[in-house]
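*Target chain*
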Amino acid sequence: MMRMNFKKKLPIETPPIRGYQFFAYPLSVISTNKNYLPWLCNHYIQLFCNPQEVKVHFYEPYNRYTNNPWFDYEVISKSSIKSFNMNPTDLIIKYINRGYYIVSLVDEYYIPKRRAYKKVHMKHDIFIFGYDISNKNFDILGYDENVIYNHTYVPFKCFEKSFLKLDSTSLIAFKLNPNYNCELDIVSIVSQLNDYLNSNNSSNKLKPYDDTQNFSDHVFGLDTYNQVIHYFELLLNKEVELDLISLHFMYEHKKCMLLRLQLLAEKGYINDINYYLKAYDEIKRKIIIARNLQLKYKITKNNNSLKKIISILKDIYPKEKNIVEDILNQLQTKSK
């Protein structure tokens, strides 16, 4: 007779990128693989934003579950679950027992420890990585009511309500593909760094193959600095609403660049690595200062904080440009 699991949690790690959940969820799983770093370094290089609504983040068009080589996946629609008279909780437990993580759109009005809980009906994604039958709840990841990417719990009944109340949704079950192995792709890194440095629209390369990922009206690469500077100038004049996402993603970008430089140096592609690490770490430090000043402005509404942010961004923009130029020259020479 098969022994029943009453409690199970699949492994997760704190992801290096958490600005949006659709980046954080897959990385929470991928980073459990000890050899994931080359894959991280091959990605998360290019930044972009819509100039009409400045929210700078990574241009990673194929980063989800159904088009990511790290994952085997299955998709089960709500309509199929209802048609076959399946209980979503029982189904999820069976998937977790098979090593699958679950992502689904839900109504966060029914999800405890979320800002929308019992306040407003809001469709949002949820990540499930464990269950506890004794306490009748799921282990979930996501941004809690304090906007912290955190491990919390949702009772089975609350999850079922949050799932079944939506007109259209599905369960995406995914697990690591045991046969996938990623190597450092220097050609791809050089191409993306070149696009970043020259503010090339990287999405143009995909237009012939997937027009849904083409953003002809967006700004890419280092030019996003100018967009963020302009955004803070508008904020000074109270012409836009406060939004914290761009500086956070700029910080995560510098954090990834430091990891990338370390690995490239280990593989013999970069000389004088201590100089570049020190220079990029200083850029990251100044981005953190700018981000903290924005949080201060949120409380005090003192325009001096915004003026300092603008000054910091204008200062580090040419410095990062020079560093990327130097790095790119080394990579192009050594990859020939």
User: Anything to note?
Assistant: Strands lie at 7-9, 47-50, 53-58, 71-77, 101-107, 123-132, 137-143, 149-155, 170-176, 219-220. DSSP finds ten helices and ten strands in the chain. The chain has two domains: 7-32+71-176, 186-334.
